[in-house]
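G., the chain you wanted modeled:
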Amino acid sequence: MPVKTVIRYPARVLKGLAGPVGEIGPAERALADDLVDTMYDSPGCVGLAAPQLGVALRAFCLDVSVMKKPPEGNHGLVVLFDPELVLTAGSDLKREGCMSVPDYTCDVRRATDIVVRGTTPAGDTRVVEAGGFEARALQHELDHLDGLLILDRVASARTDVFRRKRYAAKGDHLK
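Predicted structure as tokens:
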């Protein structure tokens, strides 16, 4: 599948409630492929939700095993349709970035341990119990399905939002 363009804020699709996927067919499996291909093609990306591709459906992919130092016990590639957060525990404040808000990072409070249930592209129910960074990343993708961005999760725009430092890659001045 071709890699898609990641939609950036303030695109309306990012702020709306994503609709249910329902029955899994060829179009839904193609969406899963687009999500995975685009995620893997995007440097530093560990997750992507359907609204970030302009598709207002409850679907996302995630793979924290691609990190330089992947968290132990991670689940590898996770692709879920109609996911729901079943259980949360703990709380932690950490910095997050987002492909749809590329110029900023934000301090966001999230649960440290979660359980998520959804449907795989094969139509099976999958339950994921995650902790640490993987739990944070799953909650980040779930937020996208509810029209929430990291900017919506900060306690204070003055103290919790940070401009990213960008370093020009060779040839960037030619673009």
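The CA atoms of residues 169 and 175 lie 11 Å apart.

Shout if anything looks off.
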